[in-house]
């Protein structure tokens, strides 16, 4: 049976790991802070002392951590995933990081003799729990097929996006579109409110048109409720738009609207909403326009 | 029985007028050029010599023409709708025009003794034919209720957005969001293509995510096919974003992302794509980035 | 001797008219409100009852009023400049208005038998008093040369920019650049302050570099002093950027950065700074970033 | 006598090093490729085998290289500046790199026992030859004063901008403003050309107004001549705007206009103008608008 190592038991990682456990994989987990490992230990899941030990034991090592620095640290320095890698190891990098960071990680793993797939996921905590994240896999077809049963335990669908790095590019594509759409929706709502329209009526109209989609439905609702509890926080959306713009600069795709969206999220961070849900991008816009989209 | 006058038998207006005819209203039509009136005459529908005569005959006068100047011309000058207005006339202005233009038209009609509803519609030719346009009505509740059976013949749903002018504001809200979303989708696709992603795979991912919506589904398809036959042309989207930004300036809602989107549509016009579908906003972006989203 | 009519005795117009008087022209003035005419009457300058009477008396009619609507009202309706125009009249339109508005005014004057020059001026109250405004003249060479002595009394230099309309386009060009530069300077200062730099040191560096110019020198000083008394108010700069973007849309010049600048001025208006100096564009940026560029 | 080490003999570095030599300092130089060292060797200047050896010999080590990676490589890895650093060494980092990169370099030097000043310079090759670069120094007052004679040999003025890192922030401030102003000037010229104005006339008007400055004077001239030989290339300006936006994101200063400017430079890169002068930012704008600012 395949032994799967899972590093990073955060809000996303924990339910993903549970899904691997439920699917019957021989699971070994690791988290930087031990409190997040506790429930797994209590349920009889193996807990590794270090990423290096985890890697030595596992056939496939999945990791989902906060950013590119955290991935680099996992692989190199004290954390030593690389020291544990051998020719039977496949590393599945699931964090949302930059393209250059992905390729650097892939090179390190490959040089250490292992195989590499980048497979960031699209979706929030709900889909993570339900196993319905969209898995965005980049890697050689054979390698992606080998790890597909593992990805299938966490994701539905799993989309093979191309060679190594293309999973990451697809994730940047998705979150670029998500960020642009969220900030555009916020601008539209503020325009409407400043013009005297009612949020509920605007929502009705959107839901009857060509832009009827889960994002506008859910964010319209939480904005109307004044509920900015984080599903996907402003800080993360800002990070992802920054990564996408970095990459766009490298590949020669000027993105003026995306650049404007990034600055809108930057404003939300500057006004103290970085930890709130991405829908909080509307808040500085409301302040400036002197309106509120919150329902009475 | 209510006599309905209908002015403007263009791509949208003609099917809307047919729906009024099908619904059994006593219909009288007018178009600036007679060729568009011909099929109605042949089907036994009354054709008026002038907007003034049409207005004299009708209880309710609907008009859907190209822009605010055309509406002003209809009401004043030679075309003389106003001369035909009396206390039993209700004018239903369905063209997409600016807020100030709407209010000016409303004032003229009201001063002439008539009643006024602004009821622009959201949707393209297909929904116009099917009677499933989204009707966005602004006016006093009593007046909107009086004309609702007429709107119902052309629209489903009919949304009462508020007092006079709010139908127009809602239309600007909808098309602002539409334009922003279209241009953002174009940026995302160009980013993806420049990064090595395949359009079909990007479409699959979008259709599995929080932005799954008719717009991205249909425009993704036509872009992949290189089909820019106009459903809603770049020129109209540019006009509507310009109107929205004018209005936003008046009500104090700064819209940096919408402003960027307008310039993207301006680029498409400058490159000769003004008469093509709004999805052609992608074409100058592709030229600059040196990529194509068209499927092989 | 040439009789010069001057309409519009505002902050700019009054000193311009005094300069005409000082230059020895036979002057007749008009202002919508009589209080602004009083000092001229007291100094023995003729005051006309109406624009129509002024035009009948004058060989050359200069006007500088608030916007395109005010110009249209002067020419048509009750104010009747056009009724006073004959084949010996030259109208010199000096207000900053849109290109389409300029051409419409030119057409009206020409149809009434008169000659037309558009000659908006660049500069603020100081240069208006000193007669050192930059005069931006559009019209046939012969006509511009005929009125040049009059312009020379108010301006130095007078630049002939091309045929009718090009004075207006040049004014839009100048104020587009001015607005963009002002908002960019504000962004740079806020960036610097947020990064821990001192305004006075930033000013020293700018004054030693390739961007050493009167605008940054003076606005840097007033910003450091927290002095936002209007030389050229935010509202006017916003209007001029809006006119430039309208015109840019017509001629097919997409201007993404100018579009962003317009929204920055829109934010300043929305936050109540519309009547303050254009440098107040920095204030919403400071609020968002939580910094102040004001010196202690 | 102070021994000065100078690393990086590129287009900027070489004349700066000659100025140190002319000022009578005991100079030792190093360049990654030996051809750039040759003229110095021929003139009797010491040439070091490696950055490490240079650092061992020198009291003050100046470096000006291409980017943050090059600086990191100089300090660490094979190049070994750090190995040569002792308590008598002061490193003066003059390259334009990011704030985080500067602070990382400062930490490394300080940990190795040395002292650190960041002193990027503003100006192009001409001022580098004339010794009139604007030196932007960040560091403790005592350390900056100690190296001021060295900076004075290359710069006039030398501006002490604050503690370590503030020289870098000031450089980002300057180049942010420069990039914004350049792209805004390009937009204005394209607007004017598309509106029928003549470049030479626009230049005359700018030179008579509040934005009369060396940048617009020189770039207006080279654009009119179609001369895009690089003084400061598009690629560098793009890099510096990217660094400034990164930093702005960290300190919470949303910069929508600067973000738009970055995308304009990105477009110039995408169209193959990355190695040309920053004024080439106008070229994709001209292509889109279908105009040319080049004089006949």
TrEMBL record, chains A, B, C, D:
Domain 3-hydroxyisobutyrate dehydrogenase-like NAD-binding per the UniProt entry, residue ranges: 165-284
Signal peptide start-end: none
Keyword Ribonucleoprotein: no
SUPFAM superfamilies, A to Z: 6-phosphogluconate dehydrogenase C-terminal domain-like, NAD(P)-binding Rossmann-fold domains
Domain 6-phosphogluconate dehydrogenase NADP-binding residues, every copy: 3-162
Gene3D superfamilies in alphabetical order: N-(1-d-carboxylethyl)-l-norvaline Dehydrogenase, domain 2 (1.10.1040.10), NAD(P)-binding Rossmann-like Domain (3.40.50.720)
Keywords noted in UniProt: NAD, Oxidoreductase
Name used for this protein in its record: NAD(P)-dependent oxidoreductase
Native organism: Haloarcula saliterrae
């Amino acid at each position: 049976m395949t032994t799967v190592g899972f590093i990073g038991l955060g809000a996303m990682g924990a339910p993903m790991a549970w899904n691997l456990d439920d699917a019957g994989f021989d699971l070994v987990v690791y988290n930087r802070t031990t409190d997040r490992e506790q429930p797994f230990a209590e349920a009889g899941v193996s807990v590794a002392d270090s990423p290096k030990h985890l890697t030595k034991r596992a056939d496939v090592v999945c990791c989902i951590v906060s950013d590119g620095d955290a991935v680099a640290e996992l692989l190199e320095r004290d954390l030593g995933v690389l020291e544990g890698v051998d020719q039977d190891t496949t590393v599945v990098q699931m964090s949302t990081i930059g393209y250059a960071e992905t390729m650097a990680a892939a090179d390190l793993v490959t040089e250490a003799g292992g195989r590499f797939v980048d497979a960031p996921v699209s979706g929030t905590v709900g889909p993570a729990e339900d196993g319905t994240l969209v898995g965005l896999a980049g890697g050689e077809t054979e390698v992606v097929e080998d790890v597909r049963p593992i990805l299938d335990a966490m994701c539905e669908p799993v989309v093979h996006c191309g060679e190594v790095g293309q999973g990451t590019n697809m994730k940047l594509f998705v979150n670029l579109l998500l960020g642009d759409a969220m900030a555009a929706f916020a601008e539209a709502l503020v325009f409407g409110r400043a013009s005297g329209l009612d949020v509920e009526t605007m929502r009705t109209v959107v839901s009857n048109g060509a832009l009827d989609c889960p994002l506008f439905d859910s964010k319209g609702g939480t904005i109307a409720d004044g509920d900015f509890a984080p599903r996907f926080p402003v800080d993360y959306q800002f990070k992802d738009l920054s990564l996408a713009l970095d990459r766009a600069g490298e590949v020669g795709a000027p993105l003026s609207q995306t650049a404007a969206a990034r600055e809108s999220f930057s404003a939300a961070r500057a006004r103290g909403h970085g930890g709130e849900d991405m829908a909080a991008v509307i808040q500085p816009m409301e302040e400036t326009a002197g309106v509120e989209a919150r329902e009475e």
